[in-house]
Amino acid sequence: MVPIRITRAHLKLAVETQNWDLLDRLLEMDRKHMDDASYFTDTWGEWWGLLMECIMREYETGVRILLKHGVDRTVGTWGDCIPQTPLEAAKDNIAIAALLQEKGPPEYLRSSDPMIPELIAQDEKINRQGEIADRTGMVFQVEDLE
Q: What is the CATH number of the domain that holds 99?
């Protein structure tokens, strides 16, 4: 049996669809890409990762799961805009700010054991974006990789 390869696209999909049991399962299997700060971008050249996305969208459960698995609590936004830390981004959300300031990892118990989704063409672009960033340190929007 071929081992399942957990990719950036899997993690991004779990956050975008708010599939928290899937995110927890994926991170149990492989945490390698959890702290990548180039998952999301705007049109102004600002980039951020899974933790910042969950904070900005007020996905408290997503923040809880990422912290459970040891996400770097200091990785914020970067790029052409003024950088922002996760704690700065959570200043208006008391529950998320409290999670970020806890010393130990919070708990999260899955209620299901979701299947790992198959990757589609768009997912491969997300993974290619990350591979280019790993090799060169340069990040391009997924649309530029066609």
A: 1.25.40
Distance (Å, rounded) from C-alpha 3 to C-alpha 102? 34
Give the span between the Cα atoms of 106 and 117, in whole angstroms: 26
- Residue 1 counted as domain residue: no
CA distance 146 to 143: 6
Does the global pTM surpass 0.70?
yes
- The tokens for 104 are 């130990």
Q: Which domain holds residue 96?
A: 8-145
Average pLDDT over residues 50-73: 98
**Cβ–Cβ < 8 Å for 38, 139:** yes
- The domain tally of the chain equals 1
Q: How far apart are CA 136 and CA 82, in angstroms?
A: 23
Long-range contacts of 128-135 (CB under 8 A, 24+ apart): 129/8, 129/38, 130/7, 130/8, 130/33, 130/36, 130/38, 133/36, 133/38
- Region 103-125 average pLDDT: 87
Cα separation, 35 vs 52, whole angstroms: 10
In a domain, 89, yes or no: yes
pLDDT digits (tens, 9 = 90+) for 10-20: 999 999 999 99
Tokens read off for 114: 């979701």
